[in-house]
Amino acid sequence: MGILIDRFDTFASGFWVTLQICFLAGVGALIIGTVVAVMRISPLPPLRAVGTAYVTLFRNVPLTVVSFFAAFGLPQLGSSANFLKVPVLDAIFSRLAIDLPYFRFFIIALGFYTGAFVCEALRSGVNAVSPGQAEAARSLGLTFTQNVRYVVLPQAWKFAIVPLGSVIIAMIKNSALSGFFGVSGSLSDAMNTLTSQEGLPLIPVFIGISIGYLIMTVPLGILLDQVEKRRAGAAR
Amino acid sequence: MTATSGEPLIVLDSVDKYFGSLHVLRNVSLTVDRGEVVVIVGPSGSGKSTLCRAINRLEPIDSGTIRFDGRELPAEGKALAALRSDVGMVFQSFNLFAHKTVLDNVSLGPIKVRKEKPAAAREQAMALLDRVGITDQAGKFPAQLSGGQQQRAAIARALAMRPKAMLFDEPTSALDPEMVGEVLDVMTSLARDGMTMIVVTHEMGFARHAANRVVFMDDGQLVESAPPAEFFASPRSERAKDFLSKILTH
Ligand SMILES: Nc1ncnc2c1ncn2[C@@H]1O[C@H](COP(=O)(O)OP(=O)(O)O)[C@@H](O)[C@H]1O
Ligand SMILES: [Mg+2]
Question: Reduced to 3 states, what is the DSSP secondary structure of residue B30?
Fold first, then answer.
């Protein structure tokens, strides 16, 4: 068990890299998911079709495959991910310690993949808002965009919080795949380094790595339970 | 494209509407003058709601024309949104915005659609809540109100747009009996003030004393149209007689 203390640095930095991946991919997924959800409820058939196609694709293809294409396909578009040098995004990435292309590729894969699930969680929230309210908003003269922004989404978010939380927890666990697609230093990569390469005993490493994930997922789960309980209380 | 002086505010001409193969509005023609109060009665499923909803194009029609204030209803988009802001609508199920206080429900339209200053919009909203008698509920959420209070808030919300006409689709049908009166009182006072109104209702008392005209619908058709005294005393069609005998016997 001394490993947990001796190699604390490795566990801690693995935790930090994984947290960064999850935070960036999570923010990306929330933005993508919201945009796609709005497309899916829009009155314009072509937008709806694009939204549906997006969700169908990313919800039904394994993350491994999406990550594979991000890690090995995106470099063909520009070997060092220079095409990702979008000003704001680039500033964020550059401030982080790791600025390797694979780090970016994986965040893109995880963000796009999770975005489809965020969209569906949000859409379940939209469906929970009584259609009469959207109709009342239309009859007041609100445009589609105003209707979504002031009436539908604020309520849909509330209804969607619990399913969204589950999506984010799943995403944190899915982030473990990063180690297999060239991202070095994440928790899953640390697990591989400590056991396969350094030959350290499995059990303590397993405990250390698990603690890293549990620190992220358990509080989220507790938070969701609280929200659910409060919601049930309010409904009474 | 300006309002033709003298043209009635609402003009439906030979309107047909289908839901799939179901023919729900059959060659409906109806005109409503400025300041007129028209009550629509008829059995359930006869197309009353669809007719109401067609007037602000919540339901598009398949043929015929609908003109409001001298203009044909535009296609979905900015122009239609602008037209809808001139037509107040009150629903059976209130449809208040559940995440907003009563005051915010009433001031949302003026702020976002009419681009009024929030302070001015809220002041006007308070005046409207006073008019419908629920100023003390201004800070509450819809779920905390009784049905009658919710419906009065919904009427205030529609009035906040300063509409040229108001459509009511069975506004008291979802209410407990003791709350029907408070909503009808507000509607009666609106009618007295000269608001152009189309009211779908089973409240024959309201039809008798507040309507200029009663229109009877059955099976998607406008069967007859007459001043209330005449309609209730001597309905012309068999279908209207039959309908009245059913609802007036209890
Ligand atoms: N969205 C819809 N889709 C299919 N059928 C509908 C829809 N809305 C109404 N209908 C049908 O159209 C007919 C007229 O309905 P409605 O206008 O609601 O009647 P009313 O308000 O007089 O009870 C009914 O047969 C109803 O079942
Ligand atoms: Mg109806």
Answer: strand
